[in-house]
Every structure is written in structure tokens, then in C-alpha cells.
Amino acid sequence: MKAAVLTRLNEPLDIVSGIEFAHPGRGQVLVKLAYSGVCHSQLMEVRGRRGKDAYLPHLLGHEGSGKVIEVGEGVSKVKPDDLVVLGWIKGSGLDGGGVRYRCACMSQNINAGGVSTFNEYALVSENRVVPLPLGVPLDVAVLFGCAVPTGAGIVINDLKPVPGSSVAVFGLGGIGMSALMATMLFECSKVIAVDVSADKLELARSFGATHTVNASNVDAIAEIRKLTGGAGVDYSVEASGQAGVIEQAFESVRRGSGVCIFASHPAHGTRISIDPYELICGKQIRGSWGGSCNPDRDIPTFAKLYLEGKLPLEKLITKRYPLEAINEALDDLEHHRVGRPLIEIDTNLDLPVKVPNKNHCYDD
Q1: Which of 55, 229, 233, 319 could be disulfide-bonded to 166 (CB atoms 3.0-4.6 Å)?
Q2: pLDDT, average across residues 210-237
Q3: 67 lies in which domain range?
């Protein structure tokens, strides 16, 4: 198979062909990828902002969609020819552990964890796949692997806004936009979108944001105070991946009952600084692990909302790239030129899939 491989930190990914893989072992599922998303987490890994990487070289990607080719011993959740969502949040099923791939062009094995999606095929753990709900296209399905469970999950599972409340969303990437869309399921009086991109703010308005704040040219906190009569919002969601913005999101919530939740992971070694007096004044701040999502429970719910038109997720996919252009996708994500990059790997998965030949290899 072909894959994008991280071989050196802060260097472009290498596009490597001829990578070998075996039949799935116990708890593993072999998937032929149709699409992959590109999350800010992968950008941080590639740029070396996660600290020392002990697993080089390795595969990346943790949200995707595809078709099951083969299942290993003990797998009962999916079967060959099932269409599936791949994600990093563990669901039901066996954990097949990490994977090592071989390639004649490299002296070391290529490592992978329980899921990877920057590749044509993937051996993934059963607990990282969910059957694709009927009616959801494979490109939109990618968003159910990370962006929607994390962003919409924060609002639906963690915040659960009460009617008439106010919410500010900081950072309008895939996670932030998913969170913003989810606020429309509640009777919020104000939904304030904060970003530095005029295009993303315009998209946020189309999703129903009542107010937008361009943090590149105004004081976001001052604007939020103005919009809330000086008190601040009831809830804030932070999804920018910057420590300073986490601090702003916390500052933006009201004393007494304000809650700030963040899902972003700033660069390794970064710290946030908040005034402890604000905590004893009743403000709360906490992180969220994947929107407290249970993929097997929540993905069917998100799919239903999408099919009902309540989560217009197709609007998040603003640009598509072939696998060979994945470094361009990473650059565009880093420089705020795109919302959620979509990597097209095999858009013809409605066609019959190929099976292993007698040498246990897959024909190109």
C-alpha cells in the first residue's frame, strides 16, 4: 500500500509506496480507506509540538471512513464489506494493540497505533471502528471519527446548555464548528463565534451564530462583555489549540456559574495561567476527552441529526486533497486556509474490493 509516513519531526511527511501488511490478528480489522480527515493533532505531531516522539517512523491519522476487507479472530462488531467510521475514541470491541508495517525501502518497521488513516489500508483495533449509519456518505462520515464526537459531544454530553443561556465558541476548525452547530439543538439566547478568519466567521453565521467576533482586530473579551451586559457568557468552548485562547475562554465566562470547557491540546510544555480568585468566585474550567463520547452510542445519534438537516456537516468540508498532497493540506490547516481538510484515498468503494492473492499481498 501507499501511505504518508512521519519519519522526521518538523519535516514534510514522506509518501511511501510498497508498504506490506499482514492479515488481521486477534481483535484487528483490515480496512480499505476511502477518506481521511486531517486534525490539528496530526499537525502538532508533524511539527514536533508534542515533544519527543519515541515511535518514529510511524503512520498518522485518527479519523476516516472505509470498507472492511477482513476481520481477525474474536471480532464480532463488523464483517467484510461493511462500511465503517474510524476514530481515535475507544468504543466497544477488542483492542488489537499497535501495528508494525514493513517496507523494503526503509530499514526500520513503520509503527502505528490502534488506528491510522493517512494510508490506503489500515489494520485497526475493533474498538476503533463503528458501522457507518445508513444514508451517511463516506466523505461526511470522516467527521464522525473526531470532529463531531469531540465538538458536538462537548455541547451535548458535557455542557448541556439550559434554555436562554449564552455560549461562546473559540476557534472554528472542525471541532469548534461542530460544537457551534450543536448549540443550535438547545434554546440558547446568544451563540458567539470567535476566530481570526472572516470566512470561518461567515460560515458560523450560516450555522446560526447570533454574533461573531474577529479576534484579529478586536479585543474578544471586551466584545463578549459588551454583548452580555458586562457579565460574560454562561458557557465557553475552546478549540483553537492555543494556551492563550484557553485563558481567554475562561476569562469570558461569568462569575458564579460560568463553565469553560476545552478540548484543544496546545504545544508540549505549554502552560495556562488563570487567576485563582476567579475560581473561588464560582467559575469552572475543565478539559474534555473526546466530548465524553461513546462512539457506539453517539455516532448513530449524530448521523440522525445530520440526516435530519440539524448538523449540516457537509459545509465543513471546504477542500479536498489526494493523499500525495497531504503536506499541502497540513500547511493549509496551519495557516487557517481551510476548515477540515479531506484526504481522498479511494472514492470508488462502491465497487467490488480486491482480495489477497496467494502471497497474502494486495494487488495495486
Answers
A1: 233
A2: 97
A3: 3-145+318-344
* Count of residues making up the chain: 364
Whole-model pTM?
A: 0.92
| 59 plus 154 within the same structural domain | no
* Same domain as 43, residue 16: yes
Number of domains in the chain: 2
Say if residue 323 is in the same domain as residue 263.
no
- Residues 282, 162: one domain? yes
Q: 144 to each of 29, 32, 221, 251, 303, how far by Cα in Å?
A: 18, 17, 31, 30, 8
The secondary structure of 222-244 as a DSSP string is HHHHHHTTTS-BSEEEE-S--HH
Q: Which segment of 32-36, 307-311, 346-350 scores lowest on mean pLDDT?
A: 346-350
Assess whether 78 and 179 both reside in one domain: no
Place of cell 462537548: 154
Distance CA 265, CA 257 (A): 25
Asked if residues 163 and 186 have their Cβ atoms less than 8 Å apart, the reply is yes
Share of the chain above pLDDT 70, in %: 96
Q: What share of the chain is helix, strand, coil (3-state, %, to 5)?
A: 30, 25, 45
CA distances from 119 to 2, 65, 96, 319, 356 (A): 6, 11, 18, 19, 17
